[in-house]
């Protein structure tokens, strides 16, 4: 469907005479407009439909023009604003432009000038919308085949990610482990003007706590240590991703907050300050403000990461995606290819799964099936899901001996190791832990190949 060529204009002014004057002035130039008596009515009108241009008065009761400009920052399809006020001054003009206004006029305004300014603002709005659509389409083309989806909620996340790529504010990617949080962050990075810069990842939940300052900021030379760069250096002119940021202790969170506030950092061991030229993103298991309420995240950090929050749905809620992703993985994983496929019965079983480990768990199941089975067409038996429940999906059944959290963890580790034929590196990646942590857990639980927990 082609876009409506008519400009959609909303006049926002508490003075009825001024509204009618603007309305008639635009009508004389062939431009129709709607009206709102104040900022609250304007926001209600924007909830009901979209507009290309707002003619906005600054001084109004209940909700003034400055408040409207602030609220517009939260809109996906933000109209261009032409401030029209009878109290024009250089100060108010500068302030309105800083708040995002496109243009500034004083009352009364000749109809022909008013129409020209409105048309220019409308042109800019439609150009921005077209660019946004192109960016979103580029995201989908470039994210696929990595982000395999036809789920409406996931497509909405990708569209939001494309819009986030045009900005520089911090980004929070929220979701369960294995949902593709880092992949979405990398996709945003690839679409930004920072795509030629680095992409560095700090795994906040892995390793000893005392290693973070050196890993993040680097170290100065000492008699017993060589100088080293940190992840902030590697992310210069690019993106620094903090994975599972809420796993950081408060002291380390304060170091990150200081970096974000000042844009400067100092290496461990002293020395001069360095500039940090990178965009910061982070992954979380829950929205930042909720984590702050639980006491797991500093409130100031939650505020900084709440401007752009992308919530990834779990695989079990992405209708049809487990089957789509499974078909793609079988075609591309080692041992797969054009000669191998999944039977309709196997696809139905996979589509009904709960997948608590999300895409990483699905990948592990298929990697094992491809390496063990000699069948070109994989069936339910090749997937080794027979013990997962009587309904063939049963991802909740566990042995009766799992009467403690320790036993549950040991069983889960053994199952993950078995799924990867005891390949430690792939198992650690699937579980999203470090290889060192995995080795420690194997020794702690005295696991051996063939154990079932």
Largest sheet report = 5 strands, parallel
The shape, in one word, is: globular
Mean pLDDT: 81
**DSSP strand count:** 14
Strand content: 5-15%
Q: Can you give a write-up of this model?
A:
The protein has 453 residues and is of the alpha/beta class. Helix content is 44%, strand content 13%. The protein has helices at residues 16-27, 39-48, 65-72, 90-98, 111-143, 152-164, 181-191, 212-217, 231-234, 250-262, 288-293, 299-305, 321-332, 344-351, 358-372, 405-419, 424-431, 435-445; strands at residues 9-12, 33-36, 53-56, 80-85, 103-106, 171-174, 199-203, 238-243, 264-266, 273-275, 278-284, 309-311, 341-342, 377-378. Strands 2-1-3-4-5 form a five-stranded parallel β-sheet, sandwiched between helices. Helix 1 (16-27) packs across helix 5 (111-143), helix 5 (111-143) packs across helix 7 (181-191) and helix 13 crosses helix 15. It is globular.
């Amino acid at each position: 469907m082609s876009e409506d060529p008519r400009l959609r204009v909303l006049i926002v002014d508490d003075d009825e005479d001024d509204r009618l004057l603007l309305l008639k002035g635009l009508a004389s130039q062939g431009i129709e407009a709607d009206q709102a008596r104040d900022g609250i009515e304007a926001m209600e009108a924007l909830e009901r439909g979209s507009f290309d241009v707002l003619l906005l008065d600054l001084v109004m009761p209940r909700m003034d023009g400055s408040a409207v400009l602030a609220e517009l920052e939260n809109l996906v399809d933000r109209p261009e604003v032409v401030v029209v006020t009878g109290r024009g001054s250089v100060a108010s003009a500068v302030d309105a432009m800083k708040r995002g206004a496109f243009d500034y006029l004083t009352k009364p305004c000749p109809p022909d000038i008013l129409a020209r300014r409105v048309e220019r603002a409308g042109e800019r709005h439609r150009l921005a919308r077209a660019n946004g659509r192109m960016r979103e389409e580029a995201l989908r083309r470039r994210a696929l085949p990595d982000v395999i989806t036809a789920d409406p909620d996931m497509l909405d996340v990708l569209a939001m990610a494309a819009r986030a790529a045009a900005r520089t504010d911090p980004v929070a990617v929220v979701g369960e482990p294995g949902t593709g949080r880092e992949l979405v962050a990398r996709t945003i990075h690839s679409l930004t003007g920072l795509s030629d810069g680095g992409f560095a990842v700090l795994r906040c939940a892995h390793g000893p706590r005392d290693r973070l300052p050196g890993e993040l900021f680097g170290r100065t030379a000492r008699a017993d240590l060589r100088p080293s760069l940190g992840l902030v250096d590697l992310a210069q002119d690019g993106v620094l991703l903090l994975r599972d940021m809420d796993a950081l202790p408060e002291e380390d969170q304060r170091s990150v907050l200081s970096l974000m506030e000042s844009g400067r950092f100092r290496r461990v061991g002293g020395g001069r300050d360095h500039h940090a030229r990178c965009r910061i993103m982070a992954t979380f298991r829950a929205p930042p403000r909720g984590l702050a309420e639980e006491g797991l995240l500093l409130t100031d950090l939650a505020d900084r990461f709440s401007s752009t929050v992308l919530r990834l749905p779990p695989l079990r809620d992405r209708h049809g995606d487990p089957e789509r992703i499974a078909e793609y993985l079988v075609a591309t994983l080692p041992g797969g290819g054009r000669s191998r496929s999944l039977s309709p019965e196997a696809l139905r079983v996979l589509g009904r799964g709960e997948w608590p480990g999300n895409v990483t768990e699905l990948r592990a199941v298929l990697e094992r099936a491809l390496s063990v089975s000699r069948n070109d067409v994989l069936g339910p038996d090749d997937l080794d899901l027979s013990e997962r429940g009587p309904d063939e999906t049963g991802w909740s059944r566990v042995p009766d001996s799992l009467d403690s959290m320790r036993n549950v963890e040991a069983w889960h580790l053994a199952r993950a190791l078995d799924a990867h034929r005891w390949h430690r590196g792939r198992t650690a990646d699937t579980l999203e832990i470090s290889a060192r942590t995995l080795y420690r857990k194997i020794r702690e639980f005295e696991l051996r190949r063939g154990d079932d927990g």
